[in-house]
Amino acid sequence: MSIKETVSEARSQWMNGAGPEADIVISSRVRVARNLAHLPFPHLLSREKAEQVIRAVEAAVGNEELQRRVGRLAVVRLNELTPVERQILVEKHLISPDLLENFERKAVALRDDEVLSVMVNEEDHLRLQCLLPGLQLEEAWKLVNGLDDGLEATLDYAFDEKLGYLTACPTNVGTGMRASVMLHLPGLVLVNQIRGVLATIGKLGLTVRGLYGEGTEAAGNLFQVSNQITLGHAEEDIIANLISVTRQLLAQERAARQALYRERKEQLEDRVGRAYGVLKHARVMTSEEAMRLFSDLRLGIDLGIIKNIPVSLIMELMVLTRPAFLVKVTGRDLSPVERDVYRAQLIRRKLSAAQQE
Ligand SMILES: Nc1ncnc2c1ncn2[C@@H]1O[C@H](COP(=O)(O)OP(=O)(O)OP(=O)(O)O)[C@@H](O)[C@H]1O
What we know:
The chain is an alpha+beta fold and 357 residues long. The protein has helices spanning 3-6, 47-61, 64-70, 83-91, 137-152, 186-190, 194-203, 235-263, 265-281, 287-302, 311-320, 323-330, 336-356; strands at residues 25-34, 73-77, 107-111, 116-120, 126-133, 159-160, 164-165, 177-184, 206-209, 222-227.
């Protein structure tokens, strides 16, 4: 898939609703931060030096041995894309919102299936990431590690014997790794336990972020849980800790869902039914309302209350109804009110098509 195809398709492998524990774990991500030796960190780079980093990455991913091991990654400079296309890459979670700042100096290398990518000149020279559906942190780490080895064969990384990989922000020094899971936790929200659960997570060396990462709000009852510390722990230990906490969260979420279904079945079915009804018939819809209703509908699918809607459609709709995708679909700039009208229209069309399949 070329980058142009990537930005015209809302679906991505990581959101296909497959993978272990996919009823609650939407996706797993592992990223590592790497920098090239003898060059200032990105925020201090001149335009020429930033281009030098991009060229070095281009050459490294073009290496035949790397391609044999991890596949082909296409490098795209962000200034080759339109503003809408750049925003779509954020909406698909393939790049972070930060990569859009000073985008003239930045690039992304993307594997065809969108599972592996490298952000170039974000906070660090390289951010290697792998995104997979469901709970697949070990697999994601294996893929990132393979890509890292392949790049390190030709790139000279900034590395200190004592500290490990050197990074722009001290919180990333060491392994440079952040592992995360995106969890759908409507049960814990509905039984009012979410605050307590999230507070406990902080005590276990983990942190909770919103849908689009650092500094963003949780929406649609989706929470991103990741490790806080990168120094002094082996990558495998960081991942094992996150898996173990995720499993506890899964048990708590499932218990909450069961309790709701046992004790408040009618209210739950009513909530799901209303969400489905509004999504099917509304004529104007804000993205906040859509996210709330998608969450209820998804819970209904997971509990078997709604049978004819594939869970992957909900994720596709979450991306498709974001502002940049709506502009792409309609082919023109939209006012906020027009956006709400098109969003509702698109949701109606997609849901009725799914019902007829
Ligand atoms: N498990 C996940 N599934 C899908 N997308 C994710 C997941 N974890 C993170 N992301 C996406 O990756 C991007 C970056 O997230 P975030 O800011 O949390 O991490 P980071 O940039 O690696 O960390 P740091 O703040 O240390 O630089 C965001 O768009 C976020 O939505």
